[in-house]
Design goal:
Elements: E1 5-6, E2 14-15, E3 22-31, E4 34-44, E5 49-53, H1 60-68, E6 75-80, E7 92-95, H2 109-118, E8 120-121, E9 124-125, H3 136-148, H4 164-176, E10 182-186, H5 194-211, E11 214-219, E12 231-236, E13 239-243, H6 245-248, H7 251-258, E14 263-266, E15 272-275, E16 303-305
Helix pairs in contact: 2-3, 2-4, 3-4
């Protein structure tokens, strides 16, 4: 796939036709003297839809911040587009953890999307050539991404009056408006009901495949996104594992990762059930209900994974 060249003032163009897009090798992060994770090695290739999974407190968002260049490694290496994280910020879209909008807020959905052109992305000024100035090119791009996420019918309504799923679609549109090559989404399914989780997951997969965007999503619940995933980065007390869902989610791997006996079972209808996960903080929180899953009061809540089908 052809990728453009990133241009920087007073410097030669830096090529970004690099695969893998993200590469960590023996990486370690320490914050305030505490090791968040260590010995993390992973690769994410061009056009992949990858998920960073794991319980609260293991450093999923920290991994994203390292890739964005906002956190430094204590040791090891990290590269994004073949260079130090932060070198290609203009090629990266980022949607932080979901914010809530006051119901009385009158700003329209289309205005939220337009902020992606004339606002700031994670503290980085928007290039002058892309700042929204009311010209037809900018307006066309805003309309294009709103249509892409399926929000055209309600984009002119006040953002505070929209549902959680509708708001999230417009925020995704905002993160796409500058045509990023790499998109980070931090817990985009959080607080959404199950139907909205599924529809947003399908939308993100559609964006990845049709727009050629490499997507990295932080998630607690793997169920809504598993059918679409190319790669899983699973973080636990024992480090991190990276690979396809079927490669990573095995009895041996998760037992080593969580440093406690864990069993991965396959049901007659092809589901995977993970039994015996440790108590908090090293387990998946029970934020979402899992349809058709037997809950044993004497065991931690099992994680149910539907059969992965590669697209």
């Amino acid at each position: 796939m052809h990728r453009p060249t990133a241009h920087h003032s007073n410097s030669a163009p830096i090529p970004i036709d690099i695969d893998p897009v993200i590469e960590f090798s023996d990486a370690c992060v320490q914050l305030n003297g505490r090791t968040i994770w260590s010995d993390v090695s992973l690769t994410i290739s061009t056009g992949e839809f990858a998920a960073i999974l794991g319980p609260n407190g293991v450093g999923k968002s920290t991994l994203v911040n390292v890739a964005l260049g906002t956190y430094d490694l204590h040791f090891g290496t990290a590269k994004v587009f073949g260079h130090k994280p932060g070198s290609h910020r203009q090629e990266i879209g980022y949607l932080p953890q979901r914010r809530s909008f006051d119901p009385s807020l009158r700003i329209r959905g289309i205005d939220i999307v337009t902020l992606g052109l004339n606002g700031h992305r994670w503290g980085v000024p928007i290039p002058r050539r892309l700042r929204h100035s009311g010209n037809s090119e900018s307006e066309s791009r805003v309309a294009e991404v709103i249509e892409l996420v399926g929000a055209t019918s309600y984009a002119d309504r006040p953002i505070g009056q929209l549902s959680g799923g509708e708001q999230q679609r417009l925020l995704i549109a905002q993160s796409l408006v500058q045509r990023p090559r790499l998109l980070f989404l931090d817990e985009p399914l959080d607080s959404l009901d199950l139907p909205n989780q599924g529809s947003i997951a399908a939308l993100i997969h559609h964006i990845s495949t049709t727009e050629g965007v490499t997507v990295v999503m932080v998630a607690h619940d793997v169920n809504p996104i598993l059918p679409y995933l190319d790669r899983v980065i699973y973080i636990g007390p024992g480090g991190a594992l990276s690979g396809t869902p079927r490669e990573v989610i095995t009895t041996a791997n998760l037992t080593r990762l969580f440093k406690t006996p864990i069993e991965v079972l396959t049901t007659s209808d092809g589901r995977l059930v993970v039994v015996g996960q440790p108590e908090a903080p090293a387990h998946h929180s029970d934020r979402h209900q899992h349809d058709g899953v037997h809950q044993d009061n004497h065991l931690p809540d099992p994680l149910v994974l539907r059969e992965h089908r590669h697209h």
